[in-house]
Amino acid sequence: MSLKRVLVVGGGSAGWITAAYMDAALNSKDHKPVEVSLIESEIVGRIGVGEATVPTIRHVLQTIGISESDFMKATDATFKQSIRFDNWLDGRGETYYHPFERRQTARIDRTGVNWMASDRSRPFAELVSTQPHFCEAGLSPRMPKSPDYASPLPYAYHMDAEKFADHLCDIAKARGVKHYVDDVTDIKRAENGNIESVSTKGGLTLEADLFVDCTGFASILIGKTLGAEFDDFSQHLLCDSAVAMRVPYETYYPGQIKPYTTSTAVSNGWIWDIGLMNRRGTGYVYSSAFLDKDKAEAELRAFEGDHTKDLDARHLRFRVGRRPQQWVKNCVSIGLSSGFIEPLESTGIYLSEYAVVTLCEHFPYGSDMQPLADRFNQIMTGRYDEILDFINMHYCMTRRTDTEFWREVQKDERITDNLKAKFEFWKLKPPSHSDFEDQLRLFSHQSYEYILYGMDFQRDRFGGGQRPVAKHLPGVTRIVEAGKTRLPRHEDWLEHELGTKLGRYRTAELAE
Ligand SMILES: Cc1cc2nc3c(=O)[nH]c(=O)nc-3n(C[C@H](O)[C@H](O)[C@H](O)COP(=O)(O)OP(=O)(O)OC[C@H]3O[C@@H](n4cnc5c(N)ncnc54)[C@H](O)[C@@H]3O)c2cc1C
Fold it and tell me: Which of 6, 50, 440, 452 sits 20 to 30 Å CA-CA off 91?
């Protein structure tokens, strides 16, 4: 087996996840059949957002061999157990959770049907998952003094995206990944169309057998050089802009660090709220067709409060969609260069993780790459498409009519065909495991249930629900009671297990 040279171009989250994971998964300390290098620009910055993750991130960190506490300290990370959606249904203060955990007693679980036929006075998620209870109580998913990554509950993190890339960079470099800081200015192609080398402003020429384009929205290899097509999803996802802010706890401490992401639907999109160890990240994802950037920023500041008046805001534009060919010739795109679906369910970093895991599984040790590329492309487009349907569902089930934006997102032509077919089918039976053939998917029928029932699915059909309130699944009440006495508060875990200094914010808050 010959040594394969891989050059990752771009050093954002996608680039460093790719370099660190490939090196860890394909090489060992004594045997390194794959030489991994990464080049990133000093001038073109990282996108700097992407702070909420899903539980699969733990597999990536563990494979790379990262200590969880080192990672959490280096990236100001906190725990995430769920997303809480506020005001998505009617815009009148209603709330539902999409937690990571779901108790299920048997393959045929009638909790959803019973809930639909009930008076719906208890949220579905609270009946089948312990995590909404733990989120409300502000508890950590991890016990004190437990080993890295061990928990009775599934969890992910909120983290600083810039620091995450820096931390992965330090680890990958220490393991032998070569690092260049320079701007790629030219890309040379071989006669067969492959990329042969990249040249830089500083005068370097770097050759490789496989190139990974992690240059973000610029996509200088897969897009600009190889001309890979882009399928636009804006028919189904109207948001194309964001304005983001960092709110340090010195400026405002909200009294706790929530162990969940909050997504609040507002006039023309939604606002995220993510608590890190030293600050919160907040941002407004909106549609520029319905709101201009100044009004979006003003709305975000008004939503957040007076304490934002001296804080900077960053404006971002994005294009939703994905490339049907994410591996072309000897170039694979990972991260924003391959596509983007708006961040409502924190799927950006997941898609980079999934791509690099799949690339390692399909690594081209020989020269015949095409069958591997074909399968990779099929798998990755499948991931993007399933996420498109899932995110689309959040919008099209709304009953909000307060603005043109909300009236537009629920129109029939905005709903994907897959989702329409599912809605039709779910008139005949409730959602279940066997409704989805694709076993590689991120969002199972359980995630669908959380959103569907959170959005009051089929209320008309059940006539508003006449039966008495639905009951918790057996076990949920018992585990919630036990958890409430045994799980530490989220801030306490961060302070005691990581030795962080949250106390000063908490004391200041109490003194007010
Ligand atoms: C508003 C918003 C919110 C988001 N929130 C989330 C979230 O909560 N959770 C989540 O999982 N994802 C989220 N994402 C997605 C997430 O930000 C990205 O998936 C992730 O940061 C990966 O970005 P990237 O590395 O592909 O690109 P970037 O961070 O843009 O990195 C591009 C890299 O390419 C380099 N580069 C560019 N041109 C050149 C050149 N000519 N030569 C050399 N190097 C070059 C740059 O220097 C940089 O290092 C969000 C995205 C947006 C837009």
Answer: 50
The reported pLDDT for the residue numbered 512 is 55
Distance CA 47, CA 27 (A): 29
Rounded Cα–Cα distance for residues 109 and 177 (Å): 48
d(C-alpha 125, C-alpha 446), whole Å? 10
Instruction: Give the domains, in start order, of the chain with CATH numbers.
Output: 4-51+160-232+320-383 (3.50.50.60), 82-145+241-317+426-512 (no CATH)
Q: How high is the pLDDT of residue 509?
A: 60
Residue 342: exposure state from Cβ atoms within 10 A (0-12, 13-18, ≥19): buried
Q: Given the CA of residue 347, which atom of ligand 1 is nearest to it? A: 11
Protein residue with its CA nearest to atom 16 in ligand 1: 50
Burial of 27 (0-12, 13-18, 19+ CB in 10 A): middle
264 forms bridges with which residues in the sheet? 86, 271
Total Cβ atoms within 10 A of residue 179: 15
Question: What letter would DSSP give residue 473?
Answer: P
User: Which atom of ligand 1 lies nearest, measured to the CA of 214?
Assistant: 26
Residues 211-253: pLDDT tens digits? 999 999 999 999 999 999 999 999 999 999 999 999 999 999 9
Q: Which residues is 270 bridged to in the sheet?
A: 265, 285
Rounded to whole angstroms, how far apart are CA atoms 52 and 78? 10
Q: Is 501 a catalytic residue?
A: no
Cβ(242) to ligand 1 under 6 A? yes
- How would you label 280-304 residue by residue, b for 16+ Cβ within 10 Å and e otherwise? bbbbbbbbeebbebeebbebbbeeb
DSSP 127: H
pLDDT tens, 132-164?
999 999 999 999 999 999 998 999 999 999 999
Q: What separation in angstroms does the CA of 377 have from each of 35, 85, 127, 362? A: 24, 32, 39, 11
Classified as helix, coil or strand, 436 is: coil
In order of 50, 51, 59, 81, 287, the CA distances from 75 in angstroms are 12, 10, 17, 18, 30
Q: What's the pLDDT at 474? A: 80
Reading the block at residue 374, the tokens are 């074909």
Question: pLDDT digit string (tens) for 230-240?
Answer: 999 999 999 99
What's residue 464's pLDDT? 65
CA-337 nearest atom, ligand 1 = 26
Residues of the chain scoring pLDDT < 70: 1-2, 463-465, 507-512
Residue of 29, 32, 73, 80 marked catalytic:
80
Find out whether the beta carbon of 78 lies less than 6 Å from any atom of ligand 1. Answer: no
